[in-house]
C-alpha cells in the first residue's frame, strides 16, 4: 500500500491560498507502510501529472491524479491514486520543527576537493534522504543519482552524511537533509560554497609604442571569490603597485617606463597567479660617449662611439665629410647594438684629423665629432689633443679640450728648486 509520497522541495509550485498546485515533472520519494522498518521500497522520479495535484498549506497531498512507474528488480508496476483521496500520513514539502534536524553551517570547499555534508539524527528518525535542489541523491542507503562522485559516508543512529568528491562550481548550491519521524517530517538545509583559485583569462599582448604615446593594458581574471587584480612595473626604480584595477593607463609614456609590467590576481584561495606584458618604448638615438684619442705614428688607434636608441641605431663614420667604408685598407668598422668602434691598425700621418660618428634609426638621427691626433711622449707627461664635440637632433654637448704642458728637461727642472 502506498504510504507516503514526498516531493523534492523544488517541485513545489506557486502557493495559492491554502494550497499549492504542482503540475510539472518532479522527483519524489515513495514510502510503503508494508515495510515493517519503514524502509523505502522504490525509486520514483520524473513523475508526469495528468492533472493538477493540490497540496494543503501543511504540505499534505490533498487531492489529484498521478501516474508513476517503479522498478523492483525486473518487475514494473503502476500506481494510480483517485482524486479526493489522501495518503494515510502525507509528507510535507516544507519543514516544520526548526530544531530538528540540527541546523547545519554552510560548507566551503575549494574546487577539486571533497565536500562532506552531515545531518545529525537520533532514534526518532525512521527515514532519511539527501536532496540537491529537486534531485534526490540518497534515500536511506539507496543511491538515486548517477554521479559517481557522490557517495554515502554514514547512515547511523546519530548521523546521515554524504560526500562529494572532486567538487566543481556546478555543485554549488543548497542541499537538503529530509528526515521522517513517527510524528512529523523535518528538513534541514545546508549551502555548499565552492571556492575557485584565480585564473587570468585575458591579458594584453606585448606592445611597442613611440615615446610620448599613451598605453592601455588589460588583465581579466576569474575565481571565487572574485580575485583582486594589481599591476606593477618590474623595474629597480619602481616602488609598490602602480594600479589596483583590471586596467592600467599610462599617458605620455617615457623611455624610463619601458620594460615588463606584471599583472597579479589573488583571492586567498591559492597563491596569486601572475603574467607579464612587455612594453617597448621607441625613441631616437642619443650619443652618450664619444672620445678623442691620441695615438703615435705606427701604433694601433681606436675611436669609440656609444649611442642609446630603440630600435638600435645604425652607425656611420665620416672623415672630413667623406664616408668610411668597411674593409677600407688599414681600417675596421665594428657596429654593435649600442656602440660602434673604428679601428686603425697602423696609424699614419694621413689618419690624423676630425672624425664624425652618425647614429640613426627610423625616429631620428644624431652625430658626434672627435679627433684622432698625434701623441708625443716625453719623460713625464704627453700632450693631449682636444676633446670630442657632440651635436645632433637631440641636443648638443661638448667635452672641453685640455693641453698638458710638455715636461721640462731634468737640468732645467733642477734650476727651479
TrEMBL record:
Organism (species): Anser brachyrhynchus
Membrane topology: Lipid-anchor; GPI-anchor
Pfam families: I-set, ig, Ig_3
Classification via InterPro entries: Ig-like_dom, Ig-like_dom_sf, Ig-like_fold, Ig_I-set, Ig_sub, Ig_sub2, IgLON_domain, Immunoglobulin_dom
Keywords per UniProt: Cell adhesion, Cell membrane, Disulfide bond, Glycoprotein, GPI-anchor, Immunoglobulin domain, Lipoprotein, Membrane, Repeat, Signal
GO cellular-component term (any): side of membrane
Protein encoded by which gene: NTM
SMART domains recorded: IG, IGc2
Compartments (UniProt record): Cell membrane
PANTHER family: IGLON FAMILY OF IMMUNOGLOBULIN SUPERFAMILY-RELATED, NEUROTRIMIN
Family: Belongs to the immunoglobulin superfamily. IgLON family.
An example Gene Ontology biological process: cell adhesion
Entry keyword annotation includes Membrane: yes
Protein name as annotated: Neurotrimin
Organismal lineage: Eukaryota, Metazoa, Chordata, Craniata, Vertebrata
Superkingdom of the organism of origin: Eukaryota
Domain Ig-like: 101-188, 198-280, 284-378
